[in-house]
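Tip: read the tokens left to right.
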């Protein structure tokens, strides 16, 4: 403890340094769920409560914090009096406001008071997040707040919103007041169009809009079809809805420039009809000019593939996500790093667009907090995100025996894929034929990292060099990391003598993973790292052979790769 007369060092910190520390504390509090880089991030009550204690450390800190207006500019309207206090302390600083409306939190008087408070201060709000319940019969909860934002309100051009997030049910009856100021719009609405008697859309007048994110909002596609949408400054577009509705929206979208970023998460994605339409409607910007989605030569790409699980067989399709970065913004090594750092969204698992039955698990506000990794993904400055269930033909019932990897290798130009993840954990063994895997690998000559999940040892032999036109060809010659996950190396029945509990010596010796990697190394394609995660039952001899190759081997998981691992 400091003696009388001694100064406590923390109290000698200059005010300008303290204010910067306080700002960083507030930023961290609002980014506690990892969404700090996501501009449509909803503020939770905990975001406020996590930083307020700095005002109670001592009188000096309290005085400095209360006087620093920027600390109070991120406001959650969860209590009228508290909101008034923060509005007063924020002074003239532009505001970021979050409003959650539900039946359990507010009564009618609360809603009226909050609505009036927002209306009085709407001209000060720069970023607004307005979110209601999934079901709002009669729009009783949100009507007053909608009307504050719509044309015809007395506020008019005083509204200067730049970022607007709308997560609401019901219809949108009039265009926004002063839509010219909005640069970023996130919308998840039951109906994005105005009533049919109106000859305009919610997007009317948004001539400065640069980024648009739409999630499951095309419930009435007839409201979009035939109505031109003019967004001249749009450079980033992300759609999450059914393919037909998304294509109709893209058809009506009028934009004079190619996109810096395009994202699409959808359901069925047909190779013969949907992909050609996307190639025609979407153009990406590159330093050398515009390109379509089938020409990513100026990009580094990452690809995730999931074979269909049993319950998907009747629906068919192969789950996939293709992501891309312009070579000027990310090197191949950086893209691999994004994958290892979980900055690339995981393979989507649900491609249905009905109301979320489990939304109450997340406080009644829909998606889980990490939003499928999109905030982290956005921070990498990507150019493309395309995810769906790939199918092989119009109107066809694609069975699970259709080779999805072969289909992918024909649907996209994969020459610039540097990271690939094939996940067969929930599929049947014959869902990934070796021929399809080989064609898939041969389509990716730039591949540096390959992850194989739930496949059998025979699949790994597709990496074995093979004779082609009197030449010895190595599949994916640039491969430097191989990740094998959730695999049993237990020998096939034909190569195993159950009575002697030993592997048999057949006339034709069975190649092993070690043989494959050794053959690749002999031709100059040497692996740098092999990762075995949750693998088991590898034979002692193969384990020893892998170590003789002199490559880095890392083992993770709950099972010993080899029962005699400690003795090798």
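Filled-in amino acids:
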């Amino acid at each position: 403890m400091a003696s009388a007369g001694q100064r406590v060092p923390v109290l000698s910190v200059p005010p300008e340094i303290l204010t910067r520390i306080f700002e960083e504390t507030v930023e961290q509090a609002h980014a506690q769920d990892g969404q700090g880089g996501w501009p449509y991030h909803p503020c939770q009550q905990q975001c406020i409560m996590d930083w307020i204690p700095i005002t109670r450390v001592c009188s000096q800190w309290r005085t400095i914090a209360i006087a620093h207006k920027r600390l109070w500019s991120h406001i959650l309207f969860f209590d009228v009096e508290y909101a008034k206090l923060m509005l007063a302390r924020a002074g003239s600083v532009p505001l970021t406001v979050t409003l959650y409306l539900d039946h359990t939190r507010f009564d009618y008087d609360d809603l009226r008071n909050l609505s009036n408070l927002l209306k009085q201060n709407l001209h000060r709000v720069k970023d607004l997040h307005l979110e209601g319940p999934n079901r709002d019969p009669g729009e009783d909860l949100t009507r007053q707040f909608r009307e504050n934002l719509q044309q015809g309100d007395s506020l008019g051009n005083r509204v200067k919103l730049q970022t607007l997030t709308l997560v609401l049910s019901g219809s949108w009856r009039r265009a926004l007041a002063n839509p010219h100021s909005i640069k970023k719009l996130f919308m998840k609405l039951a109906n994005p169009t105005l009533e049919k008697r109106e000859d305009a859309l919610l997007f009317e007048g948004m001539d400065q809009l640069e980024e648009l994110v739409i999630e499951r909002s095309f419930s009435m596609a007839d409201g979009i079809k035939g109505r031109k949408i003019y967004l001249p400054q749009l450079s980033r577009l992300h759609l999450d809805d059914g393919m037909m509705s998304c294509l109709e929206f893209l058809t009506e979208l009028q934009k004079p420039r190619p996109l810096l970023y395009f994202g699409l998460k959808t359901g069925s994605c047909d190779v013969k009809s949907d992909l050609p339409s996307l190639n025609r409607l979407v153009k990406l910007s590159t330093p050398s000019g515009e390109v379509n989605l089938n020409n990513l030569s100026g990009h580094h790409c990452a690809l995730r593939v999931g074979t269909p699980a049993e319950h998907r067989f009747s629906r068919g399709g192969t789950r996939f996500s293709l992501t891309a970065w312009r070579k000027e913004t990310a090197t191949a090594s950086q893209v691999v790093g994004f994958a290892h750092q979980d900055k690339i969204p995981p393979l989507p698992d649900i491609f249905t667009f009905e109301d979320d039955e489990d939304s109450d698990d997340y406080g009644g506000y829909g998606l889980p907090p990490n939003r499928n990794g999109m905030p982290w993904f956005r921070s990498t400055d990507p150019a493309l995100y395309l995810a769906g269930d790939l199918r092989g033909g119009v109107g066809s019932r694609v069975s699970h025996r259709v080779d999805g990897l072969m289909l992918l290798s024909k649907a996209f130009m994969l020459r610039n894929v540097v990271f690939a993840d094939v996940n067969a954990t929930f599929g049947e063994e014959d869902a990934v034929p070796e021929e399809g895997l080989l064609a898939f690998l041969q389509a990716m000559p730039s591949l540096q990292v390959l992850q194989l999940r739930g496949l059998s040892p025979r699949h790994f032999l597709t990496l074995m060099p093979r004779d082609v036109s009197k030449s010895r060809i190595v599949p994916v010659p640039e491969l430097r990391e191989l990740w094998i996950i959730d695999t049993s190396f237990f020998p096939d029945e034909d190569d195993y003598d159950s009575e002697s509990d030993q592997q048999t010596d057949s006339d034709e010796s069975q190649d092993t993973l070690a043989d494959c990697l050794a053959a690749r190394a002999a031709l100059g394609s040497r692996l740098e790292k092999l990762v075995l995660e949750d693998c088991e039952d590898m034979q002692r001899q193969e384990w020893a052979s892998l170590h003789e190759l002199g490559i880095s081997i890392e083992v993770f998981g709950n099972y010993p790769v080899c029962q005699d691992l400690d003795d090798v």
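The chain has four domains: 12-72, 73-257, 296-350+365-455, 479-489+510-568. The radius of gyration is 28 Å.
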